[in-house]
Design a protein that fits this description.
The complex is a heterodimer of chains A (about 325) and B (about 260).
Chain A lengths: L1 H37 L6 H17 L4 H24 L5 H20 L3 E3 L22 H19 L3 H11 L1 H6 L4 H27 L1 E3 L6 H16 L6 H24 L7 H32 L3 H5 L1
Antiparallel strand pairs in A: 1-2
Helix pairs in contact in A: 1-5, 1-8, 1-9, 1-10, 2-3, 2-4, 2-8, 3-4, 3-8, 5-10, 6-8, 9-10, 9-11
Chain B lengths: L1 E10 L7 E11 L4 E6 L5 H9 L6 E6 L2 E2 L5 H4 L3 E4 L13 H9 L13 H12 L18 H14 L4 E5 L7 H18 L3 E4 L3 H6 L3 E6 L2 E7 H5 L3 H12 L6 H6 L1
Parallel strand pairs in B: 3-8, 3-9, 6-7, 7-8
Antiparallel strand pairs in B: 1-2, 1-4, 4-5, 9-10
Helix pairs in contact in B: 3-5, 5-6
Classes of the chains: A mainly alpha (about 325), B alpha/beta (about 260).
Chain lengths: ~325, ~260
């Protein structure tokens, strides 16, 4: 009976986990642009996620339309990304440090936007796009369906964009700086565009989450980069072998976020202290990042053994 | 076509690692010149090419390509006039992009990259034909990732990319040095073929003195950031490696030292 109750608990939590996972999936797709395409670890996202939430909620509270509010969050993300991009390219600050600086600055900006540490929106008084209130509804406003549609549209747009001349230039910039410049690609410009686009998606994700949970909080982005990385890594580990196409790779990243949240919910249902969650996430990401490195080292050791074996050559001949 | 006037370059000035890489270089290339460049370790060969390509700024002097002063032009803007192939085969292509995507990137060198398609169907067909001319079987692997290709195949592809949009000047920085002798010979053959077909003005650095003599119409020897020997036409054709070593000793007062040269002789 206890086992049954446990499964019931997980099943009960599933719709919520899926919705949250999909919302974070938007964020993970944004992170994919910097982390995988541009080959830059952009820590701005911890700040721009909350900025997106803050901007969206404040526009909603001022009576603006929900789509307009999300669009303004998108613009705020673009601006945050531009700051990091310019710190990195124009001012020559290493990408990670540039992201940390922007993120720190955004903490104050977010407080100023909201006027205090958090701001609530009431789903009964405001017309929202997603809310956890509707997580069990069989309708288009169910967050699982709504966010899935948004992700599908985003993937379609990104698939088109990264196939254009400009998008190919951004991909080349991440792949090989020397080659890109030799082919006349303005690598600095492309880095800024890529980081801007990434943070805009992250801000949209923050805007969706703040609606979903009914409030924006100045701390809501803390550790966002780790969750995003976890989603990217989990998605690639599980679907990497079958999803080769660019659009499918983006989808796998979004699914990675969903899996992450289902795992988190399961672990919480099993009785893990919720305060330990961030530590757990950090450990998971650290291990997943280490595995490819270890694989390489083991392979190198094997080769070393063959070479150092004096009989190795004779045996092979 | 190329006019380099009084170019100086010192790396790490004012430190213990100060290195004067270029020491007042003057070099003029006529249209259609194919110049081979040889010289010892640290003679300034690669620095000269990098200066022309705009990788680092010059300390003083001017560089003109086809009458246009490019001395202060950013590397990516200068790329409009230049085709470049590097020593490291990894350097000239984007490993995680497809063969056709790499060619499409090169086909847009010097143009503004807009929101038009990054590659068109028509382009793909023309790339297939172009790759056939290499005779490396790449025409059937248009959508393969370039990272899967061998070093020689990558250099051949980089050559195609460098010349897809006819450059005013082709810069080859020891582009066969990292390849095995047979592949190097093949890549050199493709190089001569492409250069003569398009009548390209070319600078090729090489460590192989035989190649330097038999390739191109002009030969330059560098030492200590200066051009110490410049020969063209009949005189160049009749050179031998022994002549070159002799010339080097005469003009510099010591033996030619280039690690790779000894290994390849």
């Amino acid at each position: 009976m206890e086992i049954l109750a446990f499964f019931e608990k997980i099943l009960n939590a599933l719709p919520g986990a899926c919705s949250q996972g999909l919302i974070w999936g938007v964020m993970a797709i944004g992170l994919f642009i910097t982390y995988r395409i541009l080959d830059v670890a952009d820590l701005t996202v911890d700040g721009s996620f909350a900025t997106g939430g803050a901007v969206c909620v404040m526009f909603l509270l001022n009576g603006h339309n929900v789509w307009f509010s999300i669009f303004m969050a998108f613009i705020a993300g673009l601006v945050a990304g531009a700051v990091t991009g310019l710190l990195h390219t124009f001012m020559g600050i290493p990408a990670i440090l540039a992201g940390i600086l922007t993120q720190l600055g955004l903490y104050s900006v977010n407080l100023k936007i909201m006027g205090k540490a958090n701001q609530a929106v009431n789903v009964n008084k405001t017309d929202l796009l997603v809310s956890l209130r509707w997580v069990r509804d069989f309708a288009i406003n169910n967050p699982i369906i709504m966010v899935s549609v948004i992700i599908a549209v985003l993937i379609a747009i990104l698939y088109w964009f990264f196939g254009t001349e400009m998008g190919c230039g951004i991909r080349a910039t991440g792949a090989n700086l020397n080659m890109s410049r030799a082919q006349g690609i303005n690598t600095n410009f492309n880095k800024v565009i890529g980081i801007m686009l990434s943070n805009a998606l992250v801000a949209v994700s923050g805007a969706l989450l703040s609606q979903y949970q009914g409030f924006a909080d100045v701390n809501m982005g803390r550790g966002a980069i780790v969750i995003g990385l976890a989603a990217v890594i989990i998605g690639e580990a599980i679907f990497g072998k079958i999803f080769k196409n660019f659009a499918l790779r983006l989808l796998s990243v979004a699914l990675g976020a969903v899996i992450y949240y289902i795992v988190v919910q399961t672990v919480i249902s099993m009785g893990l202290d919720a305060n330990l969650l961030k530590l757990l996430s950090a450990c998971i990401v650290a291990i997943f990042l280490a595995v490819p490195h270890w694989k390489k080292q083991i392979a190198a050791k094997k080769v070393g053994k063959i070479n150092s074996n004096p009989n190795g050559g004779a045996e092979n001949a | 076509m190329l006019e380099v006037k009084g170019v100086f370059k010192t790396f790490n000035p004012g430190t213990i690692n100060e290195k004067r890489a270029l020491n007042g270089i003057n070099l003029t290339l006529n249209e259609g010149d194919f110049v081979t460049v040889i010289g010892g370790n640290g003679a300034g060969k690669s620095t000269l090419l990098n200066m022309v390509a705009g990788v680092y700024p010059v300390d003083c002097g001017t560089i003109k390509i086809d009458g246009i002063d490019v001395t202060r032009l950013a590397e990516y803007k200068r790329a409009k006039y230049l085709g470049r192939v590097f020593q490291d085969p990894m350097n000239g292509t984007a490993a995680n992009m497809q063969i056709d995507e790499n060619l499409a990137l090169a086909n847009r060198r010097g143009t503004f990259r807009s929101l038009k398609p990054g590659i068109t169907k028509k382009e793909r067909e023309s790339y297939k034909e172009l790759l056939k001319t290499l005779d490396l079987g790449l025409e059937t692997r248009l959508t393969s990732k370039v990272g899967l290709l061998s070093g020689g195949q990558r250099q051949a592809l980089t050559l195609l990319m460098a010349t897809l949009k006819k450059p005013k000047l082709l810069l080859l920085d020891e582009h066969t040095a990292a390849l095995d002798p047979k592949t190097a010979a093949k890549v050199l053959e493709i190089t001569e073929d492409i250069v003569s077909k398009n009548n390209l003005t070319t600078i090729m650095i090489t460590h192989n003195m035989t190649d330097a003599i038999k390739t191109g119409n002009r030969l330059i020897m560098m030492n200590n950031g200066r051009i110490v020997f410049d020969v063209s036409g009949e005189e160049k054709k009749n050179l031998t490696t022994a002549d070159l070593l002799q010339k080097f000793k005469m003009s510099t007062g010591h033996e030619l030292d280039n690690d790779r040269m000894f290994l390849s002789e």
